Amino acid sequence: MPPPPLQSLHNHMVKLRLQVPVATFLTEVVVDRRDPAFSSPSKPVGPFYPEARARELAIEQGLVVREDAGRG
Length: 72
Prior knowledge:
- This protein is elongated.
- The chain has a domain at 4-26 and 35-61.
- The chain is 32% helix and 0% strand.
- By secondary structure, it is an all-alpha fold.
């Protein structure tokens, strides 16, 4: 049985009766924390929060938060 991140894909392959090896490649990228793109993110990353909690996190941790299609 593959490790948990691969388990869902592996289980789907088993359901389809396919014996296909499943692998994950993990990559890392180094970014400059001063990159201006961080002040205006274009894609959501992380969990969705209710508005009040998002405001708290923005103040407490200096996070940049934005409404995303009514999801949080």
